[in-house]
Amino acid sequence: MLGRLARASSALAGALLLTTAALAAPLALAPPAQADPLPPTAVAMGDSFISGEGAGAYTAVTDQSGVQQGFPGWAADNSNPYFCHRSANASIQVASLPGIVQRVNLACSGAQPADMANASSARPAGRTVAAQVEQLRQVAQTGDIDLVLLGLGSNNSQFTFGGVAAECAGRFVADGYTGWWEVWIHFANWVTGAELNERACNDADFATAAQVSAAQAETTAAVRQVLDVLDEVDADGDHRVVLQDYTNPLPQAYAEQYRTEDGRSDTRDKYRGLVDERYAAGCPADIDSLAPAHRFSQNLGRLVSGVASTLQAERPGAKITYLDVQRAFDGARLCESPGSPGNALATPLRVMDGPSGVHVTSFGPYDKFDIKRVTDTCSDYYQTCQESWHPNAAGHQVLGRCLAGAWSGAAARVTCVRTPAGDVLVQ
């Protein structure tokens, strides 16, 4: 009896063990739950030509304390992060980028190489935003960074785009509105505040060879820091970095109607009518400044190309593309054809009469003292004029097509050219 009970108890116990094992087996074999993959992300970094300066539809920007800053008013300090002018129309936002799900604009108008690894506010005339590589780290927490569009080099410790643009425009306006004998009125550079002479800008006024060389070294070091952080934070380690250069907003030669006015050219003293005409068209600069301006643009192209070549050689396994956009606006620059600025891909140079929010579109009713007042507004409230001579929304559509070509290919160098018919060729 006891034997039969023992055998029955043993059988029951065995059955229970088998049943328990059978129930437990599926649980043991089930794979662990997988986290949702991070969305493929494109990031814009660098300065105004990347942020979308001039393209409008600017978005709020987070400051160093983590607070979103919207438009603070025209009389606000220019250090406000909003004046990074990150546009919803910027090329990073409008480009066709197959596979990209999320797009983030970290670029800031006026950014310098130092701003990649340091807060912009750490230098004079900087803005209260965190270092761009620190912002990049934040993006990497919610996105798999597959593309970085980076534009850097036109602003640095040697020269700034805004400074040289204001110098050449200011000289032209001052020369046209005052005679050599009118020594009681002094025009100043609208950005730097330095007193202007009245000669057309030459090559050295834009940047000397030594300055360009120093700027290239600064830019190379800064891009190297970006690449180091990318290697550290990118989820899968697979990304392409596109280094874009710059396109000149002014043509190599003005259309005939912008060369003289009332029989006066910009080679004589006092040519007020010509200043009024070119300002209205968006291109207040001497004819003799155009060739040096284009040589300056070419120097910036060589600077960015040199940065790309150096880093491609250092990191042969990295996906680094140099995007040459110097001819992307061919035939559609300011004053290149009649009808400017309406048919141009760049914003006209514009100032305000005080921080009013209303741009002066004609100097016609103004005398020399009025001109000094409105140009001084640019110096006092730089945001009133900082959109000048940048790609507009239509220009960023073109730059977006250039970026799309760089993204879809795997070339180390991509050139983007606008044809006379208005087509955009990416090679």
TrEMBL record:
GO BP annotation list: lipid metabolic process
Top-level taxonomic group: Bacteria
Signal peptide coordinates: 1-24
GO MF, one annotated term: hydrolase activity, acting on ester bonds
Keywords of the record: Signal
Parts forming coiled coils: none
Protein name, per record: SGNH hydrolase-type esterase domain-containing protein
Native source organism of the sequence: Nocardioides cavernae
